[in-house]
Amino acid sequence: QVQLVESGGGVVQPGGSLRRSCVASGFSCSSYAMSWDRQAPGKERELVAAISRVGYTNYADSVKGRFAISRDTAKKTVYLQMNSLKPEDTAVYYCNARNSPADVYWGQGTQVTVSS
């Protein structure tokens, strides 16, 4: 059974940090590009950070310099380190694995709330 299981969400104060994890099972995630997307209330889902099969990364302008994506192929895990969090980072965050437009898996989504 294919699964992407996320952890590490929650509530944090502005300026704080969170580390998200996403563990893949049921497929060979080393062949997939991985990403984190988010969706805030009333807004469309947007790409936050992505990492290719060979480790190239790219980020949304809004999170550059604050967020860092990484992957551990041996552990089948992708991470998102989120620093200097802002209230506008509040959203449901989703882990994503993509091999082609027709071969995509999504995690269950986890709420991240940045509030004082």
Written description of the protein model:
Strands 2, 4, 5, 6, 9, 10 and 11 form a seven-stranded mixed β-sheet that branches. Strands 1-3-8-7 form a four-stranded antiparallel β-sheet, with no helix packed on it. The model has no long low-confidence stretch (mean pLDDT 94). Strand 9 and strand 10 (103-106) form a beta hairpin. The chain has strands at 3-7, 10-12, 18-25, 33-39, 46-51, 57-59, 67-72, 77-82, 91-100, 103-106, 110-114. With 116 residues, it is mainly β.
Number of strands: 11
Reported for the largest beta sheet, the result is: 7 strands, mixed
Mass-distribution shape: globular
First and last CA, distance: 39 Å
Please state the average pLDDT score. 94
Order of helices and strands: EEEEEEEEEEE
Strand fraction band?
A: over 45%
**Unreliably modeled segments:** none
Q: What is the structural class?
A: mainly beta
Number of helices: 0
**Percent of residues in helices:** under 10%
Rg estimate, integer Å: 13 Å
List strands and helices in order, with pairings.
Elements: E1 3-7, E2 10-12, E3 18-25, E4 33-39, E5 46-51, E6 57-59, E7 67-72, E8 77-82, E9 91-100, E10 103-106, E11 110-114
Structure keywords:
0% helix, 116 residues, seven-stranded mixed beta sheet, four-stranded antiparallel beta sheet, mainly beta
In short:
The chain has no helices and eleven strands. It has 116 residues and is mainly β.
